Amino acid sequence: MRALAAEPSCVEIVMVNRRAISPAPGPRVRQVVLDTKAARFQVDVTRLAEEMMAQGDPVYAASCVGVGSGSMKWSEEELKALEIGVVGGFARGCHDAGIAHFALLSAVGSTPKSRFRYVRVMGLKEQAIEAVGFRRLAIFRPGIIAGNVHTPGYVAWLGRLIPGRFGSVEQDDIGRAFVAEFVHHPAGSGVVHLENDAMRQASKGLPPGG
Known about the structure:
Blueprint: H1 2-5, E1 13-17, E2 29-33, H2 41-53, E3 61-63, H3 76-97, E4 101-105, H4 117-130, E5 136-140, E6 144-146, H5 153-159, E7 168-170, H6 171-184, E8 190-194, H7 196-203
Parallel strand pairs: 1-2, 3-4, 4-5, 5-8, 6-7
């Protein structure tokens, strides 16, 4: 939200929540509370997206849903209900409205074939969103997210000692990388994956590897 609010070209930010948060993140942020468990959730998302697109400005969609450190307390079916069911319904609702550019928060090493539950569910989520058929899908795969309330400080500190994609990446860098994806690739196509280094580069306005 902070990164979007700092982007001059961003006219409005519509935050879809399961419950309202207070205070509102900023003057350009509109909170919309939807029941993610309702059968009509996908339809509600479509109608909301259509309303936004009718205003004439480009509309992009992003999902940053995640359980965080609490994932160990969830069963695999509960994780799938959120990460695949809710995120999938949101993505399909956006696509049905005509949104062509989607950004997805996942996790490093995600693959549906993993023997590790969380990584496996993240891989299944990626697979489900790819199947929706967006013109461009950017999948963000951070390692340890530093600066996040769900990441203990000592874990983030240790992660900074780990080089490469499994180490730490700052939450603010991820946020700025999401915004850079929409600003710098408005007409992009295909599926792209961004890991720690690529997100840091994008957050600075540089191409991956630049």
